[in-house]
Amino acid sequence: MNKNMFVLFLALFLTGSFSACKTTRQERYVVVLSMDGFRDDYPGRGHTPTLDSLAKVGVRASFVPCFPSVTFPNHYSMATGLHPNNHGLVNNSFYDSTMQKMYRIKDREAVSNPAFYGGEPVWNTAERQGVKAATYFWVGSEAPVGGKHNSIWKVFDSSVPYNDRADSVVAWLSLPQKQRPHLVMWYIEEPDAIGHDATPDSSAVIDKVEELDAVLARFFSKVNKLDIAPKIDFIVTSDHGMATFVPDKYVNLGDYLPRDSFKFVFDGVPTVLYPKPGYTDTAYEILKKVPNITVWKKEEVPARYQYGSNARIGDLIVLPDVGCMVQFRDKGKPWLGGAHGYDNFDPTMQAIFYASGPSFKKNVTHPSLPNISLYPLICRLLKIKPAPNDADSVNLDGLLKK
């Protein structure tokens, strides 16, 4: 199939033009792909015919991450419709004083412990109402939240090729009707990794973006052959953007504060500090004088960030200026590369959002959407009742056909 024929075929599939069909709840399908660290402006810098076609036959928007703009909190926010402050994954790493346990994203025991996860992820919402759900590496799906796993789920393994993941999704959608999931959420960890290493300004990032677009093209070419193709609403999105380090802004907190005055330190962007008793005010006054950062006591975090009241958050939150890297080392030196976690409203932190299929309007560029909107959007598409969440469903009105 040549490129022009593929784009036409994709357009027909995504607009549901193969056949006119009335859908009921069990006839609807939603497939969501998240590509980690896929900044909103990347498609405009490379050759992305598949994403470009999605924009033409569906809806395109900037997706605003929650604070902090890091991977695990935001993927779980998309899954629950809750801000990190409210669902409990308050950072990629944190300490829970009640459990007396630390959460780190590379700690398999912690990642699979349901006690760390609040709210109701959408795969549980679906299964509870009789809709089968499948997840492939989505944050939170490895833990039996609420004592339950969804019908199909996978333990994260970065060695699985992207095309193999896509083929698994196609295979799930090809299962007999009684076993077939109607909600599929899958994940690819790029272009985040290359953005960290090579910076979001690099040609290497755009090479990776184009590779991912080709994965999508291959995926659609296979999905199009399924009988259920006209009934699928497809969403491709991301958790956050990426910014380039500015070496002159580098901050090593070890130059200002004694490490042994803190129970726990989670540095980076943002940096969250857990001072020992009696040291919070002293550390706060010192940090207020450090260049290129803003420091808050947890109760001072501005309301727009929806952050600061969860008991898992340390007493001091250090937000670096965009491009500033923060470490807490005896000796530190500036890193080269990219990072996220900054002010979630900054343009460099905005992520992609594309949606197309029988439920969506065509060729619409929508104003930016908060990423917690994904949860109620999926619920509306599947005609299931959402659990309590922080999202405003009015944000969805401009996306969907009446």
Automatic annotation (TrEMBL):
Keyword annotations of the record: Signal
Which Pfam families does its entry note? Answer: Phosphodiest
Q: Does the keyword Signal apply?
A: yes
Indicate yes or no for the key word Signal.
yes
Signal peptide feature range: 1-19
Gene Ontology molecular function: any one: hydrolase activity
> Which Gene3D superfamilies has this protein been placed in?
3.30.1360.180, Alkaline Phosphatase, subunit A
Q: What is this protein called?
A: Predicted pyrophosphatase or phosphodiesterase, AlkP superfamily
